[in-house]
Amino acid sequence: MKRLNVLNTLWNLFLTSGLQLLSLLGVIIGVGFLLGFLQNYSRSFIASAFGNRGFLLTAWIGTPIHEFGHAVMCIVFRHDITDVQWFPKRSTDGHLGYVSHQYNPHSLYQRVGNFFIGVAPVLIGIAVLVGGLYLLVPPSYDTLIHYVQTDVKAEGFTVAMFQKALLAGVVLLKSLWSMDYLISVKFWLFLFLAICISTHIALSTADIKGATDGVIAIFILLIMLNAISIWAPLQANKVIDVLISYNAYVLAFSSIALLFSVLTCVISFSISRVRFWS
Fold it and tell me: How far is the C-alpha of 194 from the C-alpha of 260, rounded, in Å?
């Protein structure tokens, strides 16, 4: 009986840790793949209109921000940066930019960092988008933040929570649909920057590969924390509350990047059709 209880406890420990891992990483990974899907279509449409190097129109701004995200997380998780390419170059390797780094494989902290370094372009890109909204279009920023704080209630992993979080992009779009903005230089500057950033924050194959080791390390860390929480159940509930709030905010702010990625896809498709028929 005692052995059965131990096995049951271990099973619940692994199951809980697995669900928390999915909750913690699933949203940001899903957003990264969706952004990549939209980016590939935008890139093909732009290539059909302007040639294979047409994508560089947005890469000169989007690529440095993408690589800046990797570099920031390398510093946070104490990885040694060995080489950086901030801007696209004329080369045959196909890379617009990259950050090469080294870490201590025996350090759990640095191995956890591999995940965040891998997905950093999405996290930092969204932060830059929100910052640009705050600086250049403050009324729309206030509308977005008010909606997130009052309507996106993180009360649990419910369909309603996910729907309200994703609707943040629609709320932002409505707030930007104003005649006053059409004559605002700051608005057009924000729109251009948002398109450049959202087009280049998707995760590359190398980003995903680098993040994989971090996923394993995070799972080990969650198992350790949940093992400790067996003797402190209240702390476990706090962890769940934090995960719920995290997902609500990540989804809400990710909808901004998805909004401008869709907008870029529509614009690039329209331009490619015009060029085709002209």
Answer: 6
CA distance 200 to 203: 8
| Helix (H/G/I), strand (E/B), else coil: 244 | helix
- The CA-atom distances, in angstroms, between 32 and each of 76, 146, 274 are 21, 25, 30
Question: CA nearest 196: which of 98, 264, 259?
Answer: 264
Whether 222 contacts 85, CB under 8 Å: no
The DSSP secondary structure of 235-253, one letter per residue, reads HHHHHHHHHHHHHHHHHHH
For residue 102, the surrounding DSSP H or E stretch is: strand 98-102
Give the torsion sign (CA, 232, 237, 240, 242): negative
CA–chain centroid gap for 12, Å, is 30
pTM of the complete model: 0.80
> pLDDT (tens digit, 9 = 90+) per residue, 217-226?
778 877 777 7
pLDDT tens profile 1-49: 556 565 676 777 777 777 777 766 777 778 888 888 888 888 788 777 7
Q: Token pair for residue 88?
A: 């696209």
With 0-12 / 13-18 / 19 or more C-beta atoms within 10 angstroms meaning exposed / middle / buried, residue 257 is: buried
Locus of tokens 């209880």: 5
For residue 80, report the phi and psi dihedrals to the nearest 5 degrees: -85, 120
Q: Which two tokens stand for residue 25?
A: 């990483």
DSSP character string of 157-177: S-HHHHHHHHTHHHHHHHHH-
